[in-house]
Design goal:
Chain A: Belongs to the binding-protein-dependent transport system permease family. LivHM subfamily. The complex is a heterotrimer of chains A (290), B (353) and C (385). Chain A has 290 residues and is mainly α. Chain A contains eleven helices and two strands. The relative contact order of chain B is 0.17. Chain B is mostly helical and 353 residues long. Classes of the chains: A mainly alpha (290), B mainly alpha (353), C alpha/beta (385).
């Protein structure tokens, strides 16, 4: 029982960052119809920026986190403007190939700049854990969870309450109609890709200090984000949120009670099963996002 | 190109490749060509799906890896326990193992085709990627069968029986070069025949306009599954040849980057053309060695690949082969040569079952 | 069209290959295959840095046989198939007469058939799996200790530390599995109970599932075998999960200074076997080369944490250079024979090879010293052995 509680706690905390990753990817797909293979690389970028600010420059942890996310947003906007804007209206395979090319270039740039040696980021929180009866959790992980929850809430608020969010929802429902109504599609696309990338960078910057940072961390992050998004249905933000937590629970319980080696396989097995049973994902809602 | 010119250039090309080891004594270059050749076979098999049916399969390396593991395990033998019941396989001859591998990869293709063509587009892509990742994790974790990260080592090499010569060991560079060349030619012929058959025309019709193809009565799933089976079996063959050449296989053979390598080869050369994967494969097989001569770091080389991929999609979306063919047509058209015959990429109006 | 492309590429390739051979005449090439990227990248880079120090030191002293030595370092990406590809490149393309490598036991075992195929000797600087020198490959000369040697050296400490029940956490490759097997055998011989034996993938970063089971097992000591990246994470995560067992890392690739820097106070109270203790250079067999190596390491600004790893590359290259000297020519067969006569005063101790494995096809094995150190209050302290 203690063991189960501990696994559940670990899963809750991991699930927050998974949800961040998934929401970013699903936004980009839902609004832009782009399967974003740079998502994992932006995640890695966020983690490396965190390393640079905290370990090399010696900046404050929170300030570093904010800077990493802001730079992730800027990187996302850059990718959209330079690479995707001219492909507006191209089919999904074309944009996917461009994103794969960009992903490869980004990952190897990271390796060129930071070398293949894993980097470790020190966190300012005490290393003694918070003990709650039989279970315990580190302060770093609690912080990660809290920030993830805040970011998820902020994303919801942005989409539901702001004008930009309204434009995004309109574009998601019907791009042509939105354009006719005066929504500036270019702007919406750039904002969407920037926001999605910012969330990925945030996930990387948050998990970097929990684990280690190396050039290929983005690969698994990308694949997991795909799994989460498929779980929740492409384009569904609540789906991606819940999908993130489901994946984390599957992984934790799979690792704890089946075999730790198959931890990462859980999500992919789940994808294959879900697509066989319900090809649109668990929470697909075609009519709207948010 | 007229049929005669096309035939003559094919013969010259094959003749050049057959005699190459006779005057090329640089063994390392042969090694580079062998590896490039294996990837060309894999890229040709991917082209059948990507180029002719229009399905972007990003898990293609799974079939390559399954072929490599199946052939290695069959030729090495194994003992595993399923629910405490021991299952053993005594080592089998390599040629037999390779046949098993091709069959097994084809079966996996059939299975994946059956289940995943329920979904299209982005879903299909993600299912195919997930499938490859699951195979990698199984290879990594099923220690009893695959040795996991310790790799399958000391894989036996192929022995071939030739009339009049007897057993020949396919060991070292020159015999493997000829093996790969033979496999590549056979693959090319198989794909060429398939593409020019009725089934092939149906696949192309699907790619160009699926609703229309369906409306004239083409059984979409049947042809997609057929293409997947052939494609998977050929990728499995490439994997088997690879395993018995390098004689070691580890779970990283399933990495996404190898699928990407194949995809780059196909789209650079020209998807949906027979020569495309060959041209793309030669470029990306030999390019690393040329770049290395200029002291280019491997990371930089991959950055170049990534950027090249983007540029090709922007500026040469059909790839090199169609671009060159168009240029050739324009040139011969100006000098008054007869118009070229329609090629495989044209939409066949006659594609009716 | 295709023919033209191929010919052009061929011509370019030929030109670059020619350029390569022209350079080769003036130097003696030594091949090095190390994991510079991937799961073992930290250790592989340290070994390569140590090898570079040796290269420069040897060349500054006039080189070998009147020629300078030149290291050709290839990245095997912590992957066995890549390791084979690097050895293929080094031997067939660069024509090196001798190789040093390949760090991890799995990588070394992967390349061994190639050594036999091309009859090129290799000095093994790190790998610990017993299989390497007992499988009858006469081209392998190992200067690092085997897991068995390490476990036997550890024996007197079992009673001293009061170990009653031990659990294991190791990578599921030859390095981890081999070490866990040798240590558990030795511990059982000393009457110690062995609890759970958990494994992990060399690339894994989350060990909460394994550590939760280890905590439930309740041993007083946890033996961990993996490279420094994973050791760091295990120390941190063990502390988060309140695992109170004493943690001992084996295999010598634990870089204690790096652990202190990266795991912080989670590293306190942990024990580590090392094969060179840079904190007390006076205890080693040959303080002279140890001091030269340490001074140069500091001068180049390399990570202090890498000192316990880099010396392997330093010693490996010195061993190879000495063998080439004895052989009198840079040819594989002569170097292989010379390695049997090679004696080097190295950081590892007095390096020389004894025969191991089946008669007629013996591999060479050195017998180095083993040290156990403890991290206490953010500092490394002696701890017996």
């Amino acid at each position: 029982m203690d063991q189960l509680l501990q696994h559940a706690l670990n899963a809750m905390i991991l699930g927050g960052t998974y949800a961040l990753l998934g929401i970013g990817l699903t936004l980009i797909f839902g609004i832009m119809r782009v399967v974003n293979f740079t998502h994992g690389e932006v995640y890695a970028f966020g983690a490396y920026m965190m390393y640079m600010f905290v370990m090399l420059i010696g900046a404050n942890f929170i300030v570093s986190l904010v800077l990493a996310v802001v730079l992730g947003v800027m990187l996302g906007a850059l990718i959209e403007i330079v690479l995707l804007r001219r492909l507006r209206g191209a089919d999904i395979d074309t944009t996917m190939l461009v994103m794969i090319g960009a992903g490869i270039a980004m990952q190897n740039s990271e390796q060129l700049v930071w070398s293949g040696v894993a980097k470790s980021i020190n966190s300012p929180f005490p290393s003694a854990p918070l003990v709650m009866g039989a279970v315990s959790v580190s302060w770093t992980r609690l912080f990660v969870f809290a920030v993830a929850v805040v970011l998820i809430a902020a994303t919801y608020a942005l989409i539901q309450k702001t004008r930009l969010g309204k434009s995004m929802r309109a574009t998601f429902q019907d791009r042509e109609a939105a354009a006719l109504m005066g929504v500036r599609i270019d702007r919406v696309h750039t904002a969407t890709f920037a926001l999605g990338s910012g969330l990925a960078a945030a996930a990387g910057a948050l998990l970097g200090p929990v684990f280690v940072v190396y050039p290929t961390i983005g690969d698994l992050a990308s694949l997991k984000a795909f799994a989460i998004v498929i779980l929740g249905g492409l384009g569904s933000i609540p789906g991606a949120t819940i999908g993130g937590f489901i994946l984390a629970f599957m992984e934790e319980l799979g690792a704890g009670y089946v075999s730790s080696g198959y931890r990462d396989a859980m999500g992919f097995l789940l994808i294959i099963v879900i697509l066989l049973v319900k090809p649109t994902g668990l929470f697909a809602r075609k009519e709207r996002i948010g | 190109m007229s049929r005669a010119v096309s035939l003559a250039s094919s013969v010259a090309w094959v003749g050049f490749l057959v005699t190459l080891p006779l005057w090329m004594d640089n063994l390392y270059f042969l090694h580079v060509l062998i590896i490039a050749g294996i990837f060309i076979v894999a890229a040709m098999s991917l082209n059948l799906l990507l180029g002719y049916t229009g399905q972007l399969s990003l898990g293609h390396v799974a079939f390559f890896g399954i072929g490599a593991y199946a052939s290695s395990l069959c030729s090495l033998g194994f003992e595993i326990h399923v629910l405490d019941v021991p299952i053993t396989l005594a080592p089998k001859p390599v040629w037999f193992s390779m046949l098993v591998a091709v069959t097994f990869a084809g079966l996996c293709g059939w299975f994946i085709g059956k289940i995943s063509f329920k979904v299209r587009g982005a879903y299909f892509v993600i299912v195919s990627v997930s499938f490859a990742e699951v195979t990698r994790l199984v290879a990594l974790n099923w220690l009893e069968l695959t040795q996991g990260p310790m790799a399958l080592n000391n894989i036996p090499f192929l022995k071939f029986w030739f009339p009049g010569i007897g057993d020949v060991d396919i060991l070292g560079k020159v015999p493997n070069y000829y093996l790969v060349l033979g496999v590549a030619i056979v693959t090319y012929v198989i794909i060429r025949r398939l593409v020019h058959s009725r089934a092939g025309r149906a696949m192309i019709a699907l790619r160009e306009n699926e609703p229309l193809a369906t409306s004239v009565g083409i059984d979409v799933t049947r042809f997609l599954v057929l293409a997947t089976v052939v494609s998977a079996a050929l990728a499995g063959l490439a994997g088997a040849v690879y395993a018995h050449y390098v004689r070691i296989v580890d779970p990283d053979v399933f990495l996404f980057i190898y699928t990407v390598t194949m995809v780059i080869m196909v789209i650079t050369g020209g998807k949906g053309t027979l020569a495309g994967p060959i041209v793309g494969g030669l470029i990306f097989g030999i390019l690393p060695e040329v770049l290395r001569g200029f002291e280019v770091k491997p990371e930089l080389q991959w950055i170049v690949y990534g950027v090249l991929m983007i540029l090709i999609v922007y500026f040469l979306p059909d790839g090199i082969v169609p671009a060159v063919r168009d240029a050739w047509k324009r040139w011969t058209g100006r000098t008054g040569a007869p118009p070229a015959e329609p090629t495989g990429t044209a939409v066949p109006a006659e594609a009716r079952p | 069209m295709h023919t033209k492309t191929a010919k052009l590429a061929l011509a370019m390739l030929g030109a670059t290959l020619l350029a390569g051979t022209a350079l080769a005449q003036e130097t003696i090439k030594i091949g090095v295959t190390q994991p510079l990227t991937g799961a073992f990248a930290a250790s592989g880079n340290y070994v390569a840095q140590g090898a570079r120090i040796a290269e420069d030191e040897i060349n500054a002293a006039g080189g070998v046989l009147g020629k300078k030595i030149q290291l050709v370092i290839e990245d095997n990406k912590s992957n066995p198939t890549e390791a084979v590809a690097t050895v293929e490149k080094l031997i067939v393309r660069d024509k090196v007469p001798v190789i040093m490598g390949a760090w991890s036991s799995t990588l070394t075992l992967a390349v061994m058939p190639k050594l036999q195929e091309y009859k090129v000797p290799m000095v093994v600087e790190t790998s610990s799996s017993g299989k390497i020198t007992t499988s009858g490959n006469p081209y392998v000369f190992r200067i690092s200790p085997t897991s068995e040697m390490e476990a036997v050296a550890f024996k007197p400490l079992v009673a001293k530390l009061g170990i009653k029940k031990a659990d294991f956490l190791n990578t599921n490759n030859d390095f981890g599995i081999g070490s866990a097997a040798e240590y558990s055998k030795m511990l059982k011989g000393q009457g110690v109970a062995v609890g759970v034996m958990e494994t992990m993938d060399p690339k894994a970063t989350d060990f909460s599932a394994q550590l939760t089971r280890i905590k439930a097992s309740g041993g007083d000591t946890l033996f961990v075998t993996t490279a420094v990246e994973q050791v760091t994470l295990i120390l941190k995560q063990a502390k988060e999960l309140q695992l109170n067992a004493r943690i001992i890392t084996t295999g010598g690739s634990n870089s204690p200074d790096q652990l202190i820097a990266q795991a912080g106070d989670a590293a306190n109270g942990s024990f580590h076997t090392v094969f060179f203790p840079p904190w007390f250079p006076e205890v080693v067999t040959n303080p002279e080369p140890a001091k030269r190596y340490m001074t140069e390491w500091q001068k180049r600004g390399h990570e202090p944490g890498g000192l316990t790893e880099g010396f392997r590359g330093y010693d490996g290259i010195f061993t190879i250079a000495e063998a080439i000297k004895i052989a009198g020519k840079a040819e594989p067969a002569a170097i292989k024979d010379a390695l049997w006569k090679t004696k080097v005063k190295g950081v590892y101790g007095n390096i020389e090879f004894i025969k191991q494995g089946p008669a007629g096809n013996e591999s060479g094995q050195n017998i180095p010293s083993v040290y156990l150190v403890k991290i206490d209050g953010g500092k490394v302290a002696k701890s017996g052995l």
